[in-house]
Amino acid sequence: GTRVGGAQTVSPAATDTVLADAAEGGQGQAAILLLPGRAGNDPRPRTGTTTAAGLLAVTRAAGRHSFGGPEQILPGPAFVDGASVGIDAATGSVFATWRDVGSPIGWSVRTPLG
């Protein structure tokens, strides 16, 4: 039931961004976690151009062909050093966890993506 569609840029324009994690649900809904203010495989924020801007998510509801715009989960200047996302098969709810250096593990739940 899955097919490859057209490419879509999901990161903010003109901002270096690294993919943190991605998940797809059983109905085709999807969620992607992004770490803005990063470049390549460098785990630290880039200096001189941007700073770590927290954690963003982009989502796609079931039956949709494109992702919505980035949504802020954790504001900057937080430096997230690990993030994970999953979609509950029974409810379609999205569950994200992350670690901000020097803080306890954070989490966020979003109602079903349709």
- β-sheet strand percentage: 35-45%
Number of strands: 7
- What number is the mean pLDDT? 84
The biggest sheet amounts to: 4 strands, antiparallel
Radius of gyration: 14 Å
Q: How does this structure look, described?
A:
- The chain has 114 residues and is mainly beta.
- It is 0% helix and 40% strand.
- The protein has no helices and seven strands.
- The strands form two sheets. Strands 1-2-3-4 form a four-stranded antiparallel β-sheet, with no helix packed on it. A three-stranded antiparallel β-sheet has the order 5-6-7, with no helix packed on it.
- Strand 6 and strand 7 form a beta hairpin.
- It is globular.
Task: Chart the SSEs and their pairings.
Layout: E1 17-24, E2 30-36, E3 55-60, E4 71-74, E5 80-87, E6 94-100, E7 105-110
Antiparallel strand pairs: 1-2, 2-3, 3-4, 5-6, 6-7
Key traits:
4-stranded antiparallel sheet, 114 residues, mainly beta, 3-stranded antiparallel sheet
Quick recap of the structure?
The protein has 114 residues and is mainly beta.
